[in-house]
Amino acid sequence: MEKPPRPGSLIRQHPPHERGGRLILLGILSSIVFLMGVIFRETADISSVLVKYKEELCLFYYASVNRLQTLHLPRMRSIWLTALTFCAAVLSQSVTIDQYIDSESSIAKVGVLANIGPSGAKSSGAKAGVVIASPSTSDPDYLYTWTRDSALVYKMLIDQYTLGEDISSSLRGNIDNYVSAQTILQQVSNPSGTVSTGGLGEPKFNIDLTAFTASWGRPQRDGPPLRAISLITYANWLIANSNTTYVTGKVWPVIKLDLDYTAKHWNQSGFDLWEEVSSRSFFTTAVQHRALRQGAALATKIGQNSLVVGYSAQADNILCFLQSYWSSTGNYITSNTGGGRSGKDANSVLASIHSFDAAAGCDSRTFQPCSDKALANHKAYVDAFRSIYTINSGIAANKAVATGRYPEDVYYGGQAWYLTTAAAAEQLYDALIVWKAQGSLQVTSTSLAFFRQFSSSIQTGTYASSTSTFATLTAAIKEYADGFILVNAKYTPSNGALAEQYHRNTGVPLSAKDLTWSYASTLTAFASRKGFIPASWGAKDLVVPSVCVSNQLPMVPVTFTVVASTVWGESIYLTGSIDELKNWSPTDALILSSTSYPTWSITVNVPVSTKFDYKFLRKANGVVSTWESDPNRFFQSPASGNSVLSDTWR
Ligand code: NOJ
Ligand code: NOJ
Fold first, then answer.
1. Where in the sequence is the domain holding 565, given as residue range(s)?
2. For ligand 2, what atom is nearest to the CA of residue 142?
């Protein structure tokens, strides 16, 4: 399997001779900047001209900040960091929430539009309707279009258009460009396959709509459902506004391909939204569920009845699987099934806000923002960043802090992210919308610790909006949510530009500049704070099947035979890399029959066209005695028909 480039290894790539030159340069630069910092601090507020000058110089200095990650000399590093802190202080904003929203709203909108082709100010070369992730072309090179980022950005724009926030014809044209661009992109053959063999799982493309062919963490299975969600939202609005022809002719064909892909592949592993872990991922599962649920409703609406049963059945299966990410011992959502981390991850907070359906109330089956599980998870996630970032030190345990992707992150040194901190605010704004609408809020044993942050003596129970407890809690939670926005505000340079990350010790922006997703996430958080309610997607009153169907692919029988002599009390077992072979569990391994001794055999139904590894093992009186020697055995099941494998114990 191809892996994404490891951030650490990328950094240490430079040949030694180059590195020496660079370091001397860095040394000189950082000393200058250090002095600059001292001077600026002394001369702060002398005049606005000077302030402007300082800003320009500091912005110039920022251009080199990503290099900080490459610096392995501890002394130089700390001088550099000190200087950066001065710059951060010069550039950061001390504003009220209203001031920040006032100024940042338009900056963020301009920022988004600048990154969309064909005429975006910072995206020359991008085809019409193509979102670049960021204009940054090196360290990191983000001048590509990601299916995930693009879908989330357009979901924001489509919501703005359909909810009446921006009804300009230029925005309408822009959204139609997205539809056209995705129609082309879906057909581009790429390293994940063709349109019909898995190519829709390709995470990113060149901005001229050609395939990106270098190695990467692929496939990523959240792209197709996210794109479907955006386009279904648009399609529903178009139908309600008498443009069904455009929907059936142009939008639906794109949606259908994404839904078919999702219905077929949801149960296979893929890389998570951070492109690092290949396993099953909460965010991916959540958006797959939502897309098929909404897709079934749209299919019904436009008379595509034959598809409805299939989409709905898979949506039920996914909803069932979705529940398995909840850790009742940890009281939070474990974001990935693989990866060996705590599982506390912005993945789950993003999943919750992108699953928001005000009509579903505080439903925990779909992890609605105000559900007890999502609130408990919010606390676990935010708390994971309190002690690991210096910029969070000294902040009370019930006040907002900067957050990042996940606490174990090392990408660019594992810094704070604007979009994750904004998401922490947005979840709470969403929750407030629902509590107000339903006129009460509920504290359960699951969410008790979350609510105790705001009232240390609160007990479980339901509090009506007429009670003072409701008033106190909602006011405190609103202030808490605003706190996350204000943390981002504090580390937003005064020109309002939002990069991908800001430094965990200094607050200095770093990694990709002008990240489109940073701007979009800021705008969606602001919209939720204002009480904007995105269209419902059908999350209300869903029933979780009592038995999860884990694999929806058709099955084919495979007969495993192995010639093996055994002693009395000994039997031969089989295990392997797929569910049907018990995922390498020696305990659950399948016992073979000895009817044709010394040939042992078993027939197992496995999913069609699936690659897997397997091995035989011996157990003496139920206890594992020996495994076969390496390497693992390998088989790919056929698309149909019986297979018989004839092995000899080794
Ligand atoms: C690793 C990062 O964590 C991931 O998010 C990024 O997309 C890839 N490297 C490529 O830069
Ligand atoms: C890295 C992030 O981890 C990933 O989620 C994103 O899609 C790309 N950068 C592009 O913004």
1. 555-648
2. 10
